[in-house]
């Protein structure tokens, strides 16, 4: 997983509440088994008209927002099914961070497992940022995970958390900074795991090898 320190990019506003994972990645695409290529499915039914043409009214099809790398959204984003594909699609489309007042729990956890940075701001700061981003694609924001601050060149600045629990925030912040998913965290204990394996009774080792 790629470490995340800081990013600066255009902010795309998605001013909708309770956006579920089926809206992020429609269920009909889930028959695919690859982990790549999900960016093209992102918000598919919003990005495209029934005849396949880009929907000119959807924000990501508006000139200037196509290269946005930061997404600001409304409450409870990522609700619905637990599909990890939703985070894959956002990241593979080109987004590095999502700014929200709240996220659905499983979607939130999947962010950490894929190096996708969740930024929690108070509702009033979200509304301010949403307004600035809607004024045009000139809203360029910096997300600094080392300092836990977001800011632009026009005076917007705020501290943020990646988790509302202070201890979990610091743990998750460090895993994102160092590019550690659950497998990488486990492998950090390689010496202890090896020591445990070397002390297992022989019959357990033989049983495992026979399988």
Could you explain how this protein is built, in words?
The chain is an alpha/beta fold and 211 residues long. It folds into two domains: 175 residues, Aconitase, domain 4 (Alpha-Beta Barrel); 30 residues. A seven-stranded mixed β-sheet has the order 4-3-2-1-5-6-7, sandwiched between helices. Strand 5 and strand 6 form a beta hairpin. The longest helix is centred in the C-terminal third of the chain and has 13 residues. It is globular and about 65 Å long.
- Strand arrangement within the widest β-sheet reads 4-3-2-1-5-6-7
How many β strands by DSSP? 7
Q: How many domains? A: 2
In angstroms, what is the radius of gyration? 20 Å
Query: What is the H/E order?
Result: EHHEHEHEHEEEHHHH
Structural class based on helices, strands and sheet pairing: alpha/beta
The name of the CATH superfamily of the largest domain reads: Aconitase, domain 4
- The best one-word shape is globular
Uncertain runs: none
CATH C-level label of the largest domain: Alpha Beta
Mean pLDDT across residues? 91
Terminal CA distance: 31 Å
Number of helices: 9
Helix percent reads: 25-40%
Sketch the major β-sheet: 7 strands, mixed
Name the CATH architecture of the largest domain: Alpha-Beta Barrel
CATH level 3 topology of the largest domain: Aconitase, domain 4
Strand percent estimate = 15-25%
